[in-house]
Write a structure and sequence with these properties.
single chain, about 290 residues, alpha/beta, five-stranded mixed sheet, about 40% helix, about 20% strand
Length: about 290
């Protein structure tokens, strides 16, 4: 029987966290430990967990250093508690009751099992492969034919074998938010481990990006996505095809911002600054929410 530790990272979303933890406790596959990493919330999150979920451990951080730092610390905590697998997720994830059971059925010490994400409207999303660029793959396509590229994951329900985590290390804590999960996927793949999507495992999770002409992220959030992607692909990996894709993507995004963005000047300046910081390796928390 596997020993499993669930790691949930949260920040000022107490009610979402309540639904997430309730879903974890309803799993048909038992969870040995649950730890909530709280990024210095000011909405009573820690008190709620302690009162409503007394068997859930809480790791309160002194300041908000982002989801990337939270997963780094939470996974480190799990490694110290004799888990075989670490189930990582955001606080707005609500896995179906058999989600973990379905993941465990496909679990291997050298492979990360990943659930399919489903938005509250019933649309499945969140599957992607890396083929010198990130490509979204819908579950029906995945079931119908082989996929060209290597599967990746978001930090919304991947079941991480401890053997893999010990080999590749902890997630990059300096990213604050965004791209930390994809960068971790690439590190796992580059270490010759596998990632497998499990269509039978469903995790309900809202998506801001489904059915949108352009990403509606605020300017401060845009900074981290562009900076972290630039750092990973241009400064760290240095694969020409990936670098070309990245800067082509940024050029298209700048054009879209110019056409559709009411805050086009701020977005342009932020995107350029983020690329410069990524190239220079200036990581950490730099843009306030």
């Amino acid at each position: 029987m596997y020993r499993i530790c669930a790691v949930v990272v949260t920040y000022k979303r107490r009610e979402m966290l309540r639904h997430c933890l309730s879903a974890l406790l309803r799993q048909t596959q038992p969870i040995d430990h649950i730890v909530v990493v709280d990024n210095a919330s000011s909405d009573g999150t820690v008190e709620m967990v302690q009162q409503v979920f007394p068997n859930v451990a809480v790791l309160p951080l002194a300041e908000n250093l982002g989801g990337a730092f939270g997963f780094h610390e939470g996974i480190r905590w799990a490694l110290a508690h004799d888990a075989d697998y670490i189930w990582a997720m955001d606080d707005d994830a609500v896995p179906l009751t058999d989600c973990l059971e379905q993941l465990c059925a496909q679990a291997r010490p050298d492979c990360v099992a990943v659930p399919v994400l489903r938005d509250p409207g019933g649309l499945c999303y969140g599957l992607g492969v890396w083929n010198n660029r990130w490509v979204h793959v819908t579950p029906d396509v995945m079931a119908g034919k082989p996929i060209e590229g290597r599967p990746t994951f978001a930090f919304v329900g991947p079941l991480l074998p401890v053997q893999v985590v010990r080999k590749v290390g902890l997630p990059e804590k300096r990213f604050f938010i965004w791209f930390d999960d994809l960068q971790y996927s690439l590190r796992i793949l580059d270490a010759n481990y596998q990632i497998k999507h499990v269509p039978e495992a469903i995790c309900v999770h809202p998506s801001r990006f489904i059915r949108k002409r352009r990403n509606p992220e605020p300017v401060w959030m845009l900074y981290y996505g562009v900076r972290n992607m630039t750092y990973t692909l241009v400064r760290d990996r240095r694969i020409p095809a990936e670098i070309f894709w990245h800067f082509s993507l940024q050029a298209r995004a700048i054009a879209a911002d110019t056409v559709y963005g009411p805050d086009r000047v701020a977005r342009f300046k932020t995107r350029i600054l983020a690329m410069v910081h990524g190239l220079c390796g200036k990581l950490g928390k730099r843009q306030a929410a």
